[in-house]
Structures are given as structure tokens and as C-alpha cells.
Amino acid sequence: MAVLLRVRSRTMLTTAIVVSLLTLGSPVVTWFALPPEIRAEATGPELAMVILILVAISAFTMGIGLSTVVATEEGVAISTGLIRHRYAWHEISDIRFLEGDPWAYIFTFRRDRDGDPQRRMVMAIQSPDGDRARLDAARLQEIWLSHRP
């Protein structure tokens, strides 16, 4: 299965890395800035819970930052954090990235509860990436147009 296009938002990945470093680093710096007598009052379970929460926040942030879209001959795979969606080219009714949109969208022939076409965010193609995002969206749309029945 040859990969025709693989995209990841550079801006979102950079932001996720910075936020994760701050989320994990700030409490460590703060911890060592506290007087020893205050640090001594913290119990193991309290520290474990704080560490668990901070790691979970960082994992979630990095999952979003590592969002990708991969186009192959068979279709497209969208990965956003832990959520993955795969669509064959014939399942896609439109790919849009309009001026003012925060990210690209893939519309499918499936319908939601209101009868509207199902829409999926393609967070790997983000407007803060500027011209690169517009080119990636145009390339994805070009691949879709060449592969749809």
C-alpha cells in the first residue's frame, strides 16, 4: 500500500510539544522551589495522582499534536489522538478547506441524526500552517478526485 500523501500540522505539533513541556516542567520546577518542610508533607499517593494527571494531560496534548492524515490508493486515514477513521475513496462526498475554516473537513455519504452529511475534522491540515495547509488540502482533494469512482 503506497502512501500518496502524509500530512501533520507543524504548528499544532510545535504547540503540543511546548504545552507538554510546560505542563510537565512547571510543576517540577515549582516542587524544587518549595521549602523542604513543605515537600515533606506530600504523601506518595498525592504525588502519584499529580504525576498521573500531568502525564495524562501531556499524552492527550501530544495525541492531538500528532494528528495525521494519510492518503493511499485505497482511501484516506485520519488520526486525531486516539481516534482513527478510515474511508475508502468512494465513501467520500467532498473535501473542503474554505477560507476561515480552522481545519480541513472530509464529508462522507453517511448521514448524521439530522440527515446532514457526516463531516470529519482533518486536524492535520490546520489554518495556522498557512500556505502549506492550503497546498496539503489541495493535494488531498486532487488525490480524492483522481480516485473516486
From TrEMBL:
Domain Low molecular weight protein antigen 6 PH: start-end pairs: 68-139
Organism the protein comes from: Raineyella fluvialis
Protein name: Low molecular weight protein antigen 6 PH domain-containing protein
Keywords of the record: Membrane, Transmembrane, Transmembrane helix
Keyword Membrane: yes
Record field: transmembrane: 12-34, 46-71
